[in-house]
Amino acid sequence: MENLVNTYAAKLVKAKLGSDAGPCMPLIGGLDDKLVWNRKADETKVLENIFKELNINSLVFLRPAKPYGSLLGFLAKNALNSNGLIQPKDCETRTFLHDLPVIKDFCADQIIRVLKKRKTAIIAPQSPNDDFKGPAIVAHGTVSPEQGFVTVSSVCFASFVKFYTDYLEALQTGKATNDAHDLFDAVLPYIKQEQQPLPDFIRAPFPDEETVYSAIIEAGKKTVEYGLVDSYFGNVSYCCHKTLYISQTGSSLDTLSGCIDPVPLDGSTSAGLTASSELSAHLEIIFRTKCRAILHGHPRFCVILSMDCDPAEKAACCFSNQCHIKCPKKRYVGTTPIVPGEVGTGPTGLCNTLPPALEQSNSAIVYGHGLFTTGKENFSDAFATLMEVENRCYKLYFEKIFQLRPECKARFKNHHPKQ
Fold first, then answer.
1. What percent of the chain has pLDDT above 70?
2. What is the mean pLDDT of residues 316-327?
3. How many angstroms separate the CA atoms of 46 and 110, rounded?
4. More confident of the two residues 130 and 159
5. Which Gene3D superfamilies match (predicted)?
6. What is the model's pLDDT at position 199?
7. CATH 3.40.30.10 fits 209-404, yes or no
8. What is the pTM of this model?
9. Of 11, 142, 200, 348, which has the highest C-beta tally within 10 A?
10. CA torsion angle for 60, 66, 67, 73 (degrees, to 10)?
């Protein structure tokens, strides 16, 4: 257990959600034969009480590093002034978190009350003079600290996407507040375009099954390293010798060794039972496009722009509460289509909405969900497209902002002169 709490604390730091020093250091506790923490901290006096009341074996506590902490604090303050809930609309939140309850005191009783119903609690003291400095995220695990790590990562992602989605809509409708303007400007230095050089990948043709596995493991790891997906979301697949090799459901893309399923295209085995929940979509994409490589990530600005809609059209739309599965409008980022769809094989399942789009383009964005890209033979092509589309979405987002707030362009250029 001691190794696990240290491992996931380090992963939060590596993902730039926490820091290795100061108030944003992750704090993780794990209960085996005894309760162990990755470090000493005053907060453990409160957090240890949670173990006594809930059937859990781990807790993750994090004050997110910038910009996530600033964005979460803003959203939490607004939530406390309304119904006490942050309600993002991205796919991860809809299917995994539902909503983010906010409490105003660092109190075991309040945290326990929330964690009995939800995977996480957001702690946001209302007074800046409180001894507890927030905001902070608390998440639990019943099997491993891994569960809390996944939840905390998802909260940070959801907070980022929600703030930037809401801010653009508020500008479009003339409802943006001074506080929102100030925060947007304050975190500009942290919002950078992905500019790393493209990594090298194992090149096809792959001589044997072992090389296929190595290529998938490498592609997953690079997708996480470049910030194009949280490690426990997204998926990777490669088709070779009438078999689709695909990452397993719930697997971490940066540690896929032992977590890849070989699924025969003829359905002759039950290997697909533990495969990604989007297996049916991958199979249909392979069938329709004849590509071999598929990458699915959750790049932040792709997700944000997928939910951007003209306010007048949105007000008149009869599907406004079901945009993610029934959006009737054909929308694009460049040549990349934006399509609705949900996990599964129903009428609005991704296996029905996504493959036709990928017949026309080597990339497609799913509303509120993420980006799928294909490569005819290699992951290098799919990865390059993943980066290209996300960078295009990043630029387009800020172009929209500059049209509505021209004065912001100079501030942006000051912080990012090469962009």
1. 98
2. 79
3. 11
4. 159
5. Class II aldolase/adducin N-terminal domain
6. 92
7. no
8. 0.94
9. 11
10. 60
pLDDT tens-digit profile of 102-137? 999 999 999 999 999 999 999 998 765 556 677 999
Strand partners for 121 = 138
Beta bridge partners of 136: 123
Q: Please, which residues bridge with residue 342 across strands? A: 349
Q: Could you say which architecture CATH assigns to the domain 1-185? A: 3-Layer(aba) Sandwich (3.40)
**Which 3-state string (H, E, C) describes the chain?**
CHHHHHHHHHHHHHCCCCCCCCCCCCEEEEECCCEEECCCCCCHHHHHHHHHHCCCCEEEEECCCCCHHHHHHHHHHHHHCCCCEECCCCHHHHHHHCCEEEECCCCHHHHHHHHCCCCEEEECCCCCCCCCCCCEEEEEECCCHHHHHHHHHHHHHHHHHHHHHHHHHHHHCCCCCHHHHHHHHHCHHHCCCCCCCCCCCCCCCCCCHHHHHHHHHHHHHHHHHCCCCCCCCCEEEEEECCEEEEEECCCCCCCCCCCEEEEECCCCCCHHHHECCCHHHHHHHHHHHCCCEEEEECCHHHHHHHCCCCHHHHHHCCCCCCHHHHCCCCEEECCEEEECCECCCCCCEHHHHHHHHHHHCCEEEECCCEEEEEECCCHHHHHHHHHHHHHHHHHHHHHHHHHHCCHHHHHHHHHCCCC
Digit-coded pLDDT (tens) for 360-410:
999 999 999 999 999 999 999 999 999 999 999 999 999 999 999 999 998
Tens of pLDDT, residues 43-63: 999 999 999 999 999 999 999
- Distance of alpha carbon 156 from alpha carbon 402, whole angstroms: 25
Residues pairing with 120 in the sheet: 139
